Amino acid sequence: MRRGVLAVTAVAGAAALTRRALRRRIGRSPLWPLPALDTPVSGHSPRRRLRALIVSRTEPAEGVLRLVLESDELPAWAPGAHVDVTLPSGLVRQYSLCGDPAEAGRWTIAVRLVEDGRGGSREAHELLVEGAELELRPPRNRFELAPASSYVFVAGGIGITPVLPMLRAATAAGADWTLLYGGRSRASMPFLPELAAYGDRVTVCPEDETGRPDLTVLAGIRPGTLVYACGPEPLMRAVTEAAPDPSAVRLERFAPAAAAPARPFTVELRRSGRTVEVAADESTLTAVRRELPDTPYSCEQGFCGTCQHRVLAGEVEHRDELLTDGERADSMLLCVSRAASDRLALDL
Hints:
Blueprint: H1 2-28, E1 50-61, E2 64-70, E3 82-86, E4 92-96, E5 106-112, H2 120-127, E6 133-136, E7 150-156, H3 160-172, E8 176-183, H4 192-196, E9 202-206, H5 207-210, E10 226-231, H6 233-242, E11 249-253, E12 265-269, E13 274-278, H7 284-291, E14 308-313, E15 316-317, H8 325-328, E16 331-333, E17 338-339, E18 343-346
Parallel strand pairs: 7-8, 7-10, 8-9, 10-11, 12-18
Antiparallel strand pairs: 1-2, 1-6, 2-5, 3-4, 3-6, 12-13, 14-16, 14-18, 15-17
């Protein structure tokens, strides 16, 4: 009996040592051929999921939904930050935080209804009701407010959302600032009552009353002034062209910037042992999904990070508005980014 017990113990000990060795092997090389990895290395956001309750739903302008979210899980944030919101259908969309960073555990977002969009804004307007729970991811910020003695802010329509917290921060810091705020009409422009408190620092430009914002004022800004702009692409181009110092301009776009013409390339899916050809007129994601149809994605505009995957070889032409420089060193977003050379190898 004692000999049998010793044998079972020895087998169990050997199995435990084997499991530890395998875990170390996986850690050294995620491509080692196992059916699954403890921690997925691609196609999954490394950021944790958060849960928040919708405690208020209002409409600050025609076609605009404002949601106030509360939860003890919500981390601190800074002006310019945006969050990923998982809609009930599973779609992931990005919205700028437009509340007060000083309100711990309380976030505010605003959603413009886009009638001819891809369905995310309509779903938000129809299904995100007071009392519902939302899944989010922690904030990212590629539109941070840098210290300066003076600023010019330019916002178009719902582009006012990331700018609102910046105005509070600039005022608290004692900086000199002005805001040009354009929109189709006053009825469509959210947060006008909040902006009225700033007096003549804010110039409201409803297109049906005054035309588009007069950006010639940018030509006369003094050295050291930073320009922050958020809105549709035509406005972003106009701001960039009007500013005397392009290096002083910070932009937050509604959609990826127009890119240079693309060319075809080859993608090696190294983990699955396959190769796909990416045509000049299709995305890397589309080509990869022909071979691996379960490859996850959502926004298809380089904003949400759902299709982020590790790059094992080759140079990437990054076209996203999301990844940090560190992340771009070894990964890419398949929906918008492409190869800068003839071939890429991905961890897929």
